[in-house]
Amino acid sequence: MTPTEMEARIVRYGELMPCKTAFIDAHTPGSDQKENFTIIGGGVSESADQHVHIRDTPGFNIGAAGQPPKCRNSLHTHTTAEVFFVLKGRWRFFWGRWGTAGEVTLEEGDIFNIPTGIFRGFENIGTDYGMIMAVLGGDDAGGGVTWAPQVIEDAADHGLVLGENGRLYDTKQGQELPDNVAPMKTLTEDLLERIPEPTSTEVIPQYVARYLDLMGLSRNAPAKVIAEDGILRDKPGFEIDFVSRGSLKGEEIEFQDNVVLMPVRGHWKLEWEGGSATLNPGDTCLLPANFKHLLAPSMTGEASLYRIISNDDPAGPTWTNL
Q1: Contact assessment for residue 55 and residue 41, using Cβ atoms and an 8 Å cutoff
Q2: What is the CATH number of the domain that holds 131?
Q3: For residues 91 and 105, is the Cβ–Cβ distance under 8 A?
């Protein structure tokens, strides 16, 4: 693989292209400054304006959300896995029918494997623009999102209507639902009553891993974060491990499945037969299966990254105590 071919597999943080109309709450006060990024795969955007950086999927999707302080993402639920790690800022994640069942605050580098089938939302509670990176289960992550009824109702009050085809229509711009497309139905009260309302005590120990803990655990070898036998035991359609400076021993690495590298801190040098590249915090690099490579920090100081590996697991968690 030539350096030019590899560069086509790297999405640089500074080149990310946001969409500000990606979701139904794009006009709702408090949520109208969100930026959605679709990095690998089609993601879950409801807008035709969403830019997709790399369309081929390795068995999962990679995306990101950028928000200024006090901006929030509205309550929704997923049937496929949704994992976030904080790249920049300080974030509060909350869940439940009204967002009051539980919450957790995540700092930079922390990771949250949000349980499927519960309403969840998040907001930037830091003082500057923040960014969280997302891993979504399955090649098609767009079909498993359902909004809380109040989100759909609030959006309609501000001119946005979601069709059953999963597309948004902005009545403020004169758009109307096509004749053959009905509005998205809200969940019935019977269905709403079946959605779990786990507490923070139930969720945090099983689904949250802290950056400082992972730095310690990866001192001599990569820490397996999300896997059937990982720190957060799960089978969401991929595995995630955490790599820091001492994890790798300068040996050539090869995986039989696709791999995505996502640096958190420091600069990492990727070398292979045919070239090399430097990966920086916020960059996303897609490596093909059976790709032999060397990976090591390129500078002194703190260095860490998340490594996402595809596998044959289904695209949703199969382990839970909720």
Answers
A1: yes
A2: 2.60.120.10
A3: yes
Coil, strand or helix: which one is 25? Answer: coil
Instruction: Note the pTM of the prediction, 2 decimals.
Output: 0.93
Q: What are phi and psi of 36, to 5 degrees?
A: -110, 135
Of 70, 89, 93, nearest to 130 by C-alpha is 89
- Does 318 map to a domain? no
Number of residues that this document lists for the chain: 322
Q: Given this model, what pLDDT does residue 165 score? A: 84
Judgement on whether residues 104 and 190 belong to the same structural domain of the protein: yes
Regarding whether 238 and 93 lie in a shared domain, the answer is no
> Of 189, 208, 227, which residue sits at a domain end?
208
Would you place residue 47 in the very low, low, confident or very high pLDDT band (cuts 50, 70, 90)? confident
* Distance, CA of 15 to CA of 5 (rounded, Å): 17
The 10 Å CB-count burial string (b at 16+, else e) for 223-240 is bbbbbeebbbbbbbbbbb
Phi, psi of 104 (to 5 degrees): -150, 145
Element (H, E) at 5: helix 3-7
What is the tens place of the pLDDT at every residue in 252-266?
A: 999 999 999 999 999
What's the pLDDT at 299?
Answer: 87
Q: Are 134 and 284 in contact (CB under 8 A)?
A: no
For residues 164 and 221, give the distance between their C-alpha atoms in angstroms, rounded to a whole number: 47
For residue range 63-80, list pLDDT tens digits in order: 999 999 999 999 999 888
DSSP string over 47-59: -TT--EEE---SS
Angle at 43 between CA 41 and CA 44, to 5 degrees: 160
Residue 302 and residue 284: Cα distance in Å, rounded? 19
The predicted model gives 104-109 an average pLDDT of 98
For residue 296, the enclosing domain spans 211-310
Question: If you average pLDDT over residues 155-159, what whole number do you get?
Answer: 89
Quick check: 227 and 234 in contact, CB under 8 A?
A: yes
